[in-house]
Amino acid sequence: MKACHPDLSGDDPETTNFCMFINEVYAVLSDPVQRMVYDEIHGYALTAVNPFLDGSSPKDHAFVDEFSCIGCKNCANVASDVFAIEEDFGRARVYSQCGNPELVQQAIDTCPVDCIHWTSAAQLSLLEDEMRRVERVNVAFMLSGMGSASMDVFRMASTRWEKRQAKVLEQTKLRRVKQKGSDKSEPYWSNLWGKPRDYQNSEEEVKERARRAAAAARRWREYSRRGVDKPPTFKLPETISNNED
Q1: Residue 207 counted as domain residue
Q2: Which SUPFAM superfamilies did the record assign (predicted)?
Q3: Helices (H), the chain
Q4: What are 50-59's pLDDT values in tens digits?
Q5: Radius of gyration over alpha carbons of the chain, in Å?
Q6: Residue 234: helix, strand or coil by DSSP?
Q7: What is the CATH number of the domain that holds 144?
Q8: CA 20 to 30 Å from 62, out of 7, 164, 213, 221?
Q9: CA distance linking residue 216 with residue 214, whole number of Å
Q10: Over 90: is that where the pLDDT of 73 sits?
Q11: Residue 12 lies in a domain
């Protein structure tokens, strides 16, 4: 954070924007209610439900599966206020969730490879987080066989959520075992699953907090892709050669 200070960065716009983003993330995570929302979305709370198995949340956020996108530019032509083509990698990305839903649906219906999906805000947050970890390649390399067919980002994100939840459950069980017999005021397993989610004051508030979490995940993905965070932890397979030795 010190390096992002305008006095040290020389008022570089990119650095200043990153500093503002870090402050925004801190404000979100320091808010107990918003932090609870984040923990539930990402599987760190015992009361959480896997967003990919939760059919109650509205799917009103668009997501482009980059493992399937071939960079045809159809979606960017149909709904230019939502989709754009990355210059470095040649694939479509969703840059705004505020576009015309009818045009987004038209882009989905006319996509030749069905790589655009409606997701919930919670699902989008997990998908953006997952894509942040994956190595980027140009669409030309991808079409030549560099990890395009076997990658399922939805399955990857859901599996990561399940692993987090299993770890949280195991840690909670261990804590309860250590506390067994020391607390006589309540039954042993009475509070295993945590307290009810009483922070959900209204449906609109819940949607807004989930939307903020998804937006933050998308922005952090952008900074990660520029090398601000750390190198990708998931490497794509090497390009498949058409020449036999």
Answers
A1: yes
A2: 4Fe-4S ferredoxins, Chaperone J-domain
A3: 6-9, 13-29, 32-41, 74-78, 101-110, 121-132, 139-143, 153-179, 203-225
A4: 999 988 888 9
A5: 21
A6: strand
A7: 3.30.70.20
A8: 164
A9: 5
A10: yes
A11: no
Residue indicated by tokens 């932890």 = 233
Task: For residue 128, count other CB atoms closer than 10 A to its CB.
Answer: 26
Tracing tokens 């989008």 back to the chain, one arrives at: 124
Contact, 88 vs 138, CB < 8 A?
yes
Could you tell me which residues come within 8 angstroms of residue 122 by beta carbon, excluding any fewer than 6 positions away? 41, 51, 54, 57, 210, 213, 214
Asked if residue 66 lies in contact with residue 131, where contact means CB atoms within 8 angstroms, the answer is yes
Q: Domain range spanning residue 40?
A: 31-176+199-225
- Please tell me the total count of domains within the chain: 1
Query: Could you tell me the two tokens for 207?
Result: 């949607």
* 130 assigned to some structural domain: yes
What is the per-residue pLDDT for 240? 38
Q: How many CB atoms are closer than 10 A to CB 24?
A: 14
Question: Alpha carbon of 118 to those of 62, 63, 109, 115: distances in Å?
Answer: 5, 6, 12, 10
pTM over 0.85: no
Q: Would you state the pLDDT for residue 187?
A: 47
- Which pLDDT tens digit goes with each residue over 139-180? 777 666 654 456 889 999 999 999 999 998 898 888 888 777
Is residue 191 situated within a structural domain?
Answer: no
